[in-house]
User: What shape does this take?
Amino acid sequence: MTVTASRTTTPARFTEEDCRLDDFVALTDQQTDLADYPYAAEVVQNVLVYDAASLRASIADPAGRDAVAAELVRAFTEGPGVAAFRNAFGDHAVVERATAAFEAIIAAEKAAGGSHNDHFGSGVNDRVWNALEKLAVTDPETFVDYYGNDLLALVSSAWLGPAYQVTSQINVVRPGGQAQDPHRDYHLGFLSNETAARYPAHVHLLSPVLTLQGAVAHSDMPVESGPTMYLPYSHQYAPGYLAWRLPEFREHFAAHHVQLPLQLGDAAFFNPALFHGAGTNVSADVQRMANLLQVSSAFGRAMETVDRTKIVRSVYPVLRARQTAGVDPASIANALAASAEGYPFPTNLDLDANVGGLTPLSQAELVTAALADDAEPEVLGETLAAYDRRRATDAI
Assistant: This one.
């Protein structure tokens, strides 16, 4: 993966002081040369665009599939970091069937008084969390036809290899829906700068290869409807997980981002480190619907199944007693890190709300709070039970 650090030697950890706009501009000023990507059909606003029919012909044999996969990896690393696929779903009827199912799910969730589903907070949009599971339970035939798509599998396996894990969220942005701030995505993109800076520099370089972001257009998306804003080549900026919140970087994004109009059945995929954000829907009547795909590496999991709730229930009285006895807090924190789940994902985002616009509370944070309050084990037990309930899916 092509990365550019702001110093000759990559530091142990990136800080905001490592973020220099001039370095960032030098990367994002790169231009995409179609000649470097023989399987692409065109370059539009510095973004590679592939024709699905042509691509399907190219991957008809294993050698061709490998060659296309290698080009896609280059596109997401050395290249602009984003690629669009025209007519990825040649059978629009499959997309329309899925759209009908998603609209029914939105209506059912609203009728049940559940999540408001408004991702942007403007009061006009809808979001379906865990749309993958909900579609499978609501309309399994459409699920099989939809996710049997060969191009979704091609791009996912090219970036992540076999055994990848698909998740999806439906996003409906109605007229008046406001733009997102530019950002990077999961994992490090979901953390505050203070937290992200605690991770070693090599983890900042690793995070982008753990997931792939994508979207399938479930409606035509002219520019006025606010399709995703991208800043090509911004994924190559090594300290970018700290830079995207800084005002000068946001201003550069605002002045130089691009937006590609899409049609129903088109798809786009991008490196999760690419600076991006949904645009404002300034149209009069376009209900912009996309199935947002987050595909994850199979390797982002521990080797053994561990019941961490059981462990915490067992060791909490000891941790509390050690704290009362004045044992070094660092020692207690180390033992807690080995016992409780320190990362809040995966979870049920219908129930487990984020805190401060970032992530939900982790199990370890809940235990830390219980220790700070000197809570009785029974009180923590109720907290842990509620935590586990919030993380269970409640599919239609």
Observations:
- Residues 92-111 form the longest helix (20 residues).
